[in-house]
Amino acid sequence: MADTSVVVVTYNALPWIERCLDSVRGYETIVVDNGSTDGTVELVRDRFPEARLLQQENKGLGGGSNAGMRVASGDYYLLLNSDAWALGDAVEQLTAFAESRPDAAVVGPKLLNPDGSLQRSVRGFPTLWRLATEYFFLRKLAPRTRALNAFYGARFDHDEVREAEFLMGACLLVRGQAADTVGLFDEDFFMFSEETDWCYRFRKAGWKVLFYPGAAFVHVGGATTAQNWGPMYREQLRGHLRFLAKHRGRREAERARRLLLASMRLRSVIFRGERRQTSAEAAHWLAGARAEELLS
């Protein structure tokens, strides 16, 4: 069996980090902390002295993952969110499957919510139409069709091996050899869309991105971003714009900015409470400058 190194990026990762690291004990583990102030660092040092702990300024999820991968010694990198954990021998199963598919740069497992329900992780690359189906609620009209829901894998049942455009980044097994060919995460993506860009680059270089349901992980979701969701939501929108600017050009990114601005204005009218405020703040941000300036 090939060696797998686990990389976990933390930022105020309590209370889930202990369960996360417990589930991958026995594997080389690198924890990259982006400036936690909630006791995460102390817990890792006390409970997991065998883990290698790196502390740095907050460079986002991609930047933190890169720091961990640069010192990892395994043939594969298991990039695991701090609010996710392996079930049973999931790491071994994921690695064994990757070994059987030398054409795969990235393999993602089945993700489950804490209550055991499925967490959909198969995704499609953003386009203007796909952003419209998401942010104007069109996908709800026919969620199982690629025409209206390719962004979320057309409600794929997640019960068979499938080639994906990209997979949600809560847990990804990445072949080191493939990463050597295309490079690590683009650190211009601070948070959100960094895995989208990476999978796009892998596929463009001829590698495959595969979903494998034979290994399962639990993912809480939002444990870090929920701490400061308003700015994080804007970062999610910025990720869409950055991806399109990088791979489709500045004009496409500007068209996407206008589309997202219209959708945020709509949401600020129809939503209530915190969701209304978040949408209104996002609309204000999108209206403040052209896409090129928002990305500078």
Question: Which features would summarize this protein structure in a list?
Answer:
single chain, 296 residues, alpha/beta, ten-stranded mixed sheet, two-stranded antiparallel sheet, 43% helix, 20% strand
Work out the number of β strands: 12
Which percent range describes the beta-strand content? 15-25%
Unreliable sequence segments: none
The 3D shape can be described as globular
Count of individual helical segments: 12
Helix % is 40-55%
Major sheet characteristics: 10 strands, mixed
Spatial separation of the terminal alpha carbons: 44 Å
**What is the ordering of alpha helices and beta strands?**
EHEHEHEEHEEEHHEEEHHEHHHH
Q: Report the structural category.
A: alpha/beta
Rg from Cα: 19 Å
Mean pLDDT over all positions: 94
